[in-house]
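User: I'm writing a short methods note and want a consistent example. For Methionine gamma-lyase, I'll paste the sequence; you return only the structure tokens, no commentary, since I'll be parsing the reply automatically.
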Amino acid sequence: MAEVINFANFSLSNAKKQAPKVADEGEDNQSPMPLSLTTKRFREVDPAAALASARHEFGEHGGVNMSIEASATFTVMEAETMRRLFAGELGPDRDYFIYSRHFNPTVLNLGRQMAALEGTEAAYCTASGMSAITAVLLQLVGAGGHIVASQCLYGGTHALMSRFLVRACGITTTFVNIDNIDEVRSAIRAGETNVLYVETMSNPTLVVADIPALAAVAREKGVKLVVDNTFTPMVVSPARLGADVVVHSVSKFISGGADIIAGAICGPASLVNSMMDLQEGALMLTGPTMNAKVAFEISERLPHLALRMKEHSTCAMAYATSMKRLGLKVIYPGLPDHPHHSLLSSIGNPEYGYGGMLCLDMGTEERANKLMQHLQNVTQFGLMAVSLGYYETLMSCSGSSTSSEMPPEERAKAGISPGLIRMSVGYSGTLEQRWGQFERALALVQQLPKNLNPEVFLIFNGSALG
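Assistant:
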């Protein structure tokens, strides 16, 4: 049996290893269960304030930055200690480590920061966002189980659920319109369904999940609500709204540099402990281990995540408003006519806006590609690339890229049109500079060689930025 870790209280550095006490006969060797940090306690907490309240980890010699524990394996001073480690009698809560695929001090420190950020009891950081999602589903669902999920998900997640898990584990998924709570409720099968899975803001259509309502259904039906919060860190805190587990592709907004692949699982300590069980843990046994150097890099970027998310949201709102004024078909939850504007306003954390993602529907893939080529190669507005959360604007035509794993009929059902451009709005440059670049690229797409459309003429010569 693996040790039960008290994630809230143990220190990961500057701790002196004391000779382990050997329990008297009949004495319980197991560590105490973690003190619960409940959803209610965190519901009204600013995620930046919660992160700032997490214990600061100092370096080995008193450095203001924590040390990087780059060791793959760890020594013990007595042979009996190793036996006790593998028996689950000793562990990281007493500053004892076995092997970095199990627990690593630097990675655990980042996990504590992620738990503070999301308002969960514990967190564990992984090698990628997909490994985090896969491990959670394997642990919570198991062979032959059933998932109810949003019909609009990141293409890789959709393929995992609709193809891989079916073939590998016999796990099936029913995809539903999460806007229809009755449809969600009726899709959950008593005794079969284990997980209700949604994205806070769907990739790429920006449908906002009513997490409090979905959490109520999950509790009613006895299933776990798992929420992918990759698009909206800081903007929304799903666990504070009732979600059981929150997953992230840390590679995106949290990293912010488009240079790291990483993931995170935030949830109850009991879940993290079960996933690290030496005999049955999905994380322990499949091994999607985060490198300690990556954990250090991300930990150094978390303190300015709040500032970055506010800038992403501010720029996205400005561009979306200006695109709307030009008569373009823009999708952004910050716009009053977005069907979930009021919902996101009610569940979002104050001061963080509506996120850094927007969609522009150009109707056809040809027009979408033409606009993106001008935006990148002529006016330097942004870059044609997948992923998100970078300081430069990243653009992709979702139907032929990040959602291409979905069959055409599934894309249509999810509302992903052939000409839908997903934009991760960056914050480099000034708003005026970037908007001027967008206007010039749009004019090149819309201009008529002989008789220039008056509206396009205005785009050439005026600034619509509001």
